[in-house]
Design goal:
The chain has about 325 residues and is mainly α. The chain has 14 helices and 2 strands, in the order ααββαααααααααααα. It has a two-stranded antiparallel ribbon with strand order 1-2.
């Protein structure tokens, strides 16, 4: 039989002819990569989708908002560039400084109180064995409750007798009724109370997870050495809860600085009264954008809130990070 002649090998190699064109060139470049370079290449391939997501959904709106804050835009006409006029107007507005101070009051009061209460609850709940799951679920229920419904229920609690629960209890004890939401001094703590109550379940669950993650061997060694309960708490439990505490501080700080639902639904006409005593910065942004239709001024306030959140988060991460 006639013998079929095989094609001559390519010069410099014995394999089949290489593919021509851009695809073949890309394959030759890929084959010359090292193992680590190939791993980095595929890592960036899989990271491409979340990177594109953050660029489109996160970064672009941020830069666009920075541009809008430099314009005069009311949704009914084209934006007009006015430079830093919105920021000058904001810093000269006494209402802005009032709501700015209120925002930090929510943080200064709400953060330590909520963390202290949630840690105490989680610390003792961790020792409960009978109906532990049910009790933990009951603490978590307020976190799942609709903020609007919860705010209106608490608003009714603060009403005078015979509607308000709290004033009814005070009257039954022979104590004078309190104005609560109608008082310049009591309005802000009254609004803050349901916000702390609503987030308590989430913080308790996170603290419980952190407590369960601490190895039992540390406690056993401390008990063998005769260490007291308070020493165990300060020297073992709290230091090992530092990552959990850092997470809750950052998340809770952002939540208190962005408080809105409770104030909007518990005050008259959602204005943060009386006399702006409870109005936070987010509510002021909402009124500027959707009541006054001044989108440029509202966006300028949003950029200030963004910078405040960024700075506070960075400071907390640097102060509380593990060494």
């Amino acid at each position: 039989p006639r013998r079929i002649r095989r094609p001559d090998p390519q010069p410099g190699g014995g394999g089949p002819p290489a593919a021509a064109g851009p695809k073949g060139e890309a394959m030759r470049i890929y084959d010359r990569l090292t193992i680590h370079q190939k791993q980095a290449f595929w890592a960036w391939v899989f990271l491409a989708v979340p990177v594109v997501f953050f660029v489109v959904v996160r970064f672009y709106p941020t830069f666009d908002a920075a541009w809008i804050s430099l314009t005069n835009w009311s949704l009914f006409r084209q934006p007009q560039f006015i430079g830093l006029d919105n920021y000058v107007k904001m810093f000269q507005d006494p209402v802005f400084w009032k709501v700015f101070a209120n925002t930090f009051k929510y943080l200064a009061i709400g953060l330590p109180v909520s963390l202290l209460i949630s840690f105490v609850v989680a610390y003792y709940l961790d020792r409960v064995r009978f109906m532990h799951g049910l009790i933990r679920g009951l603490y978590f229920v307020p976190y799942l409750t609709t903020a609007v419904a919860m705010a209106w229920v608490w608003r009714w609690f603060y009403e005078p007798v015979p509607i308000g629960l709290f004033n009814d209890v005070l009257s039954s004890l022979g104590l004078p009724q309190q104005p609560f939401l109608r008082s310049m001094d009591q309005a802000l703590p009254s609004v803050l109370a349901p916000a702390i109550w609503a987030g308590l379940g989430f913080q308790v669950i996170i603290f419980l997870a952190g407590l369960r993650a601490i190895p039992e061997t540390y406690y056993e060694a401390a008990r063998i050495d005769g260490v007291g309960a308070w020493t165990i708490l300060w020297e073992i439990t709290l230091p090992l809860l530092k990552p959990t505490l850092l997470f809750l501080i950052v998340i809770s700080s952002i939540g208190f600085l962005r408080i809105f639902d409770q104030v909007y639904n518990m005050t008259v006409d959602g204005q943060g009264g009386p006399l702006n005593a409870t109005r936070p910065l987010v509510l002021n942004i909402y009124n500027s954008a959707f009541v006054d239709y001044d989108m440029g001024y509202a966006t300028a306030q949003t950029m200030v809130l963004f910078l405040v959140l960024l700075v506070i988060t960075i400071i907390q991460l640097r102060l509380l990070r593990s060494k």
